[in-house]
From TrEMBL:
Keywords: Lyase, Metal-binding, Zinc. This is CENP-V/GFA domain-containing protein. Residues 182-206 have a biased composition (Basic and acidic residues). Residues 182-245 are annotated as: Disordered. Pfam families: GFA (PF04828). Belongs to the Gfa family. It comes from the Eukaryota. InterPro entries: CENP-V/GFA, Mss4-like_sf. Residues 17-132 form the CENP-V/GFA domain. SUPFAM superfamilies: Mss4-like. Residues 224-238 have a biased composition (Acidic residues). GO terms for molecular function: carbon-sulfur lyase activity; metal ion binding. It comes from Lophiostoma macrostomum CBS 122681.
Length: 268
């Protein structure tokens, strides 16, 4: 451990950790200790970091908060990996372009905090070094460091407490995702109801209908035969009103169901 980093006292609370970008437009705070810290020596991380390895502290999506003048800009990139294409989402400063954390489609419930952006990066010594088969040979790892030749397996290498946090974090993410989708469905249903009501208002306010009603037969000409037509028009109008009422009731019922579903998920 470096001389300028004091060893943590036994049973001491985890210190409040903050970090940010070079220009300090992006500042963030960790609301708790990371689940796991690792150094990756793969070729992709070497190129993307501009160094010989990348060091990340993995934490739940809701255990990090933005506290700076600006919120990070989320930049999505597609990277080809050994098991297919992965979508990486980088939280970057829009000014100096420093990436402070990243996530991806493989597990959006966790964020990889870039250790070098922490104010006290010396606290985050890696729990494991992965892809050491690609490590540059002049990087000498500490004696006794845990290593794997390729990727790590959380079920094997993580402590049980971190696996439990990972599970609970995924559950919170799924709940948040369901709430977001339910709110979107509710908004869509409300827009549909309002659109139908708007159409009815437009029809009622259409002046062309009044113009047609004001037209009369030419003076002196015989009145047209209307026998049976008035009854047909009344039946058509009643049928139209009936269908409009049924449609509005169906939309209203759908809206009530979505509202109930959203309320139940909020209680859960």
């Amino acid at each position: 451990m470096p001389d300028n980093v004091l060893p943590p006292a036994k049973n001491a609370p985890f210190p409040l950790l903050e970090g940010g970008c070079n220009c300090n437009q992006i500042r963030y705070r960790l609301r708790g200790p990371p689940m796991y810290c690792y150094a990756c020596h793969c070729a992709d991380c070497q190129r993307e970091s501009g160094s010989v390895f990348a060091c990340s502290a993995k934490i739940e999506f809701d255990m990090i908060e933005s506290i700076g003048p600006q919120a990070p800009a989320i930049v999505s990139i597609v990277r080809k990996e050994h098991n297919g294409h992965a979508i990486h989402r980088l939280a970057q400063c829009p000014e100096c372009k420093v990436t402070v954390w990243d996530t991806g489609n493989w597990n959006p419930s966790t964020y990889n905090v870039h250790v070098g952006t922490l104010d006290m990066p010396g606290l985050m010594e890696p729990d494991i070094h992965i892809y050491v088969d690609a490590k540059v040979r002049w990087v000498v790892l500490p004696e006794g460091a845990k290593t794997v030749p390729r990727d790590m397996d959380e079920r094997v290498h993580w402590p049980k407490s971190s696996l439990l946090r990972l599970k609970r974090g995924m559950e919170r993410w799924e709940k948040k995702k369901a709430l977001t989708e339910a709110e979107a469905e509710k908004k869509k249903a409300e827009q549909s109801v309002n659109a139908e009501k708007g159409k009815e208002v437009e029809k009622d306010a259409d002046p062309s209908l009044d113009d047609e009603a004001d037209k009369t037969p030419t003076n002196g000409s015989p009145e047209p035969e209307l026998e049976g037509e008035e009854d047909d028009e009344e039946e058509d109008f009643e049928e139209y009103v009936k269908k409009a009422d049924e449609m509005e009731r169906a939309l209203q019922q759908r809206l009530e169901q979505l509202t109930l579903k959203l309320s139940e998920q909020n209680k859960a």
